[in-house]
Design goal:
285 residues; mainly alpha; di-copper center containing domain from catechol oxidase; 7 helices; 0% strand
């Protein structure tokens, strides 16, 4: 469900389930898991969570696994999505004190409001790329201001008819819907970032491999998942690519996963999670 339509009770249930998972010691494994599978183009080995065709199916399985664990705490909880083309300012209700909390303070980026503020004692950062033990944000990146993606930019990406293309990475030569949405191909000065620009706009812990430290990560990626659903509806004859394992002579052999190959760490194939209706529906899309 779109987070803007959640009732007060639904917001509270989601927050309390996330906090309880953190208290039980179960939350941080999602931070480390995302970090482990965040491999860049220049690194060796398999690319899985990012800069690869599996960006969408890997994160869908990631969301499903997380939501299932939340539902062991509260069976009525689901992950809401954040449509950042509409709720596109730091004053949006998303950032209210009873939900995600607000921006970080100017001196050190520390989030001081809401349930995930370190000073409230419930959200210590245990694993990250920096040493801070508190959640940080830097909305809009004031030193180099950026805005969230617009509906027009999203529409342009949704119109792309091909899922992905060789060389299946983040290079500008990699055309297709996946790379455009993920957001590696357009320079900052020109705009055009989509998924990545949202991480940059929130700032703080949302930047980098350990981005699930900020719970808004889940709402952002739930919307990314819905975007994939919308693209599939618009292009029903366009399938996940590559549809078969790459040839051994291909430079990307062993680096990307085809539709019938398993995605670590779950052993689930992209083809098994292609249709979201096997797992959930979107109440407002």
């Amino acid at each position: 469900m779109n987070q803007r339509y959640l009732t007060s009770e639904q917001r509270t249930r989601f927050v309390e389930a996330v906090l309880e998972l953190k208290r039980r010691g179960g939350y941080d494994k999602y931070v480390t898991l995302h970090s482990k599978y965040f491999a860049a183009d220049g690194e060796n080995g398999l690319r899985m969570a990012h800069m690869a065709p599996t960006f969408f199916p890997w994160h869908r399985q990631f969301l499903l696994t997380f939501e299932r664990e939340l539902r062991t705490i509260d069976a009525r909880v689901t992950i809401p999505y954040w449509d950042w083309t509409v709720d596109n300012s730091a004053s949006s209700a998303l950032w209210a004190d009873d939900f995600m909390g607000g921006n970080g303070r100017g001196s050190d980026g520390q989030v001081m409001t809401g349930p995930f503020a370190y000073r409230n004692g419930y959200w210590p950062i245990s694993f990250g790329v920096t040493e801070e033990k508190y959640l940080t944000r830097n909305m809009g990146r004031p030193d180099r201001p950026i805005g969230l993606p617009s509906q027009a930019e999203l529409d342009d990406a949704l119109a792309m008819p091909v899922y992905d293309t060789s060389p299946w990475n983040s290079a500008p030569s990699t055309k297709g819907f996946r790379n455009r949405i993920e957001g590696w191909t357009v320079s900052e000065s020109k705009g055009g970032y989509l998924h990545n620009r949202v991480h940059q706009w929130v700032g703080g812990h949302m930047i980098g491999a350990a981005s699930p430290n900020d719970p808004v990560f889940w709402l952002h990626h739930a919307f990314i998942d819905l975007i994939w659903v919308r693209w599939q509806r618009m292009h029903p004859r366009s399938a996940y690519l590559p549809d078969r394992p790459l040839a051994t002579r291909d430079k990307e052999h062993g680096r990307v996963v085809s539709s019938q190959e398993p995605m670590p760490p779950w052993g689930v194939r992209p083809s098994e999670v292609m249709d979201h209706r096997a797992f959930y529906v979107y109440e407002v899309s």
